[in-house]
């Protein structure tokens, strides 16, 4: 298995501020996303990914987000095993995203 590509929250923020249209998927649970999501992100809880693969375009770069970066990296690994080669994990997750906002 190939290493999972990573993106730092600061780089993601720069790309969004530059107006890039990015595919973002937040894999946290409902109660976690209630505290806030990155604008434009789609919410697909981690345990629903296998049943909702048709919502993920295998030909486009997709950035996955969770609380700390662990679950989103597991999702990227799972998808890579199923032929999705354009998955990127946001390191540090929302914890780092919010920390850098301060």
UniProtKB/TrEMBL annotation:
Q: What transmembrane ranges does the database entry give?
A: none
Rhodanese domain location is 18-102
**InterPro entries hit by this protein:** GlpE_sulfurtransferase, Rhodanese-like_dom, Rhodanese-like_dom_sf
Superkingdom of this protein's organism: Bacteria
A Pfam family recorded for this sequence: Rhodanese
| PROSITE patterns found in the cross-reference section | RHODANESE_3
Q: This protein is called what?
A: Rhodanese-like domain-containing protein
What is the protein's species of origin? Paenibacillus enshidis
